[in-house]
Amino acid sequence: MRSRFSAFAVGDTEYLLRTWHSSTRPESLDLDSDQRWVRLEILDTAKGTESDPTGVVEFRAFYRHGGQDDDLHERSRFVREGGAWVYVGPLPLR
What we know:
The chain has helices spanning 2-10, 13-18; strands spanning 36-47, 54-65, 68-81, 84-91.
Protein backbone atom coordinates (compact mmCIF):
# COMPACT_ATOMS: atom_id res chain seq x y z
CA MET A 1 0.00 0.00 0.00
CA ARG A 2 2.74 2.45 0.91
CA SER A 3 4.59 1.82 -2.34
CA ARG A 4 1.41 2.40 -4.37
CA PHE A 5 0.75 5.65 -2.50
CA SER A 6 4.31 6.75 -3.29
CA ALA A 7 3.74 5.85 -6.94
CA PHE A 8 0.61 8.03 -6.99
CA ALA A 9 2.60 10.84 -5.35
CA VAL A 10 5.32 10.79 -8.03
CA GLY A 11 3.06 9.88 -10.95
CA ASP A 12 4.55 6.45 -11.64
CA THR A 13 1.69 4.95 -13.69
CA GLU A 14 3.82 2.00 -14.85
CA TYR A 15 4.34 0.86 -11.27
CA LEU A 16 0.66 1.35 -10.43
CA LEU A 17 -0.43 -0.77 -13.39
CA ARG A 18 2.19 -3.42 -12.64
CA THR A 19 0.94 -3.72 -9.03
CA TRP A 20 -2.74 -3.95 -10.03
CA HIS A 21 -4.36 -7.40 -10.17
CA SER A 22 -4.71 -8.65 -13.73
CA SER A 23 -8.48 -9.19 -13.34
CA THR A 24 -9.23 -5.56 -12.37
CA ARG A 25 -6.33 -3.60 -13.92
CA PRO A 26 -7.35 -0.86 -16.35
CA GLU A 27 -5.71 -0.76 -19.76
CA SER A 28 -4.26 2.66 -19.00
CA LEU A 29 -4.15 5.16 -16.18
CA ASP A 30 -4.36 8.92 -16.58
CA LEU A 31 -3.35 10.67 -13.36
CA ASP A 32 -4.35 14.28 -12.69
CA SER A 33 -1.09 16.26 -12.62
CA ASP A 34 -2.79 18.97 -10.52
CA GLN A 35 -3.54 16.51 -7.72
CA ARG A 36 -0.77 16.33 -5.08
CA TRP A 37 -0.80 13.33 -2.75
CA VAL A 38 0.72 14.49 0.52
CA ARG A 39 0.19 11.92 3.28
CA LEU A 40 -0.92 8.35 3.88
CA GLU A 41 -2.46 7.12 7.11
CA ILE A 42 -2.91 3.36 7.58
CA LEU A 43 -6.01 2.85 9.73
CA ASP A 44 -6.23 -0.94 9.86
CA THR A 45 -4.88 -4.12 8.30
CA ALA A 46 -6.17 -7.68 8.14
CA LYS A 47 -4.02 -10.60 7.12
CA GLY A 48 -1.38 -9.73 4.54
CA THR A 49 1.53 -11.42 6.28
CA GLU A 50 4.14 -13.34 4.37
CA SER A 51 2.16 -16.58 4.76
CA ASP A 52 -1.23 -15.08 3.76
CA PRO A 53 -2.51 -15.21 0.18
CA THR A 54 -4.76 -12.16 0.73
CA GLY A 55 -4.80 -8.98 2.76
CA VAL A 56 -6.86 -5.88 3.44
CA VAL A 57 -5.62 -2.38 4.17
CA GLU A 58 -7.86 0.43 5.35
CA PHE A 59 -6.28 3.81 4.75
CA ARG A 60 -6.84 7.50 4.40
CA ALA A 61 -4.78 9.23 1.69
CA PHE A 62 -4.60 13.01 1.88
CA TYR A 63 -4.22 15.17 -1.21
CA ARG A 64 -4.43 18.74 -2.43
CA HIS A 65 -6.29 19.66 -5.62
CA GLY A 66 -7.33 23.07 -6.92
CA GLY A 67 -6.19 24.75 -3.72
CA GLN A 68 -8.39 22.48 -1.59
CA ASP A 69 -7.31 19.77 0.84
CA ASP A 70 -9.24 16.50 0.73
CA ASP A 71 -8.78 12.81 1.41
CA LEU A 72 -9.63 9.39 0.08
CA HIS A 73 -10.80 6.80 2.61
CA GLU A 74 -10.74 3.21 1.35
CA ARG A 75 -10.51 -0.43 2.39
CA SER A 76 -8.40 -2.11 -0.27
CA ARG A 77 -8.14 -5.79 -1.08
CA PHE A 78 -4.74 -7.21 -2.05
CA VAL A 79 -3.75 -10.70 -3.22
CA ARG A 80 -0.52 -12.37 -4.13
CA GLU A 81 0.01 -12.72 -7.87
CA GLY A 82 3.26 -14.19 -9.10
CA GLY A 83 4.69 -13.91 -5.58
CA ALA A 84 4.02 -10.17 -5.28
CA TRP A 85 1.23 -8.23 -3.58
CA VAL A 86 -1.15 -6.62 -6.05
CA TYR A 87 -4.15 -4.36 -5.62
CA VAL A 88 -7.52 -5.94 -6.46
CA GLY A 89 -9.93 -3.14 -5.59
CA PRO A 90 -11.91 -1.39 -2.89
CA LEU A 91 -14.11 -3.09 -0.32
CA PRO A 92 -17.10 -1.55 1.47
CA LEU A 93 -16.16 0.60 4.45
CA ARG A 94 -17.38 -0.74 7.75
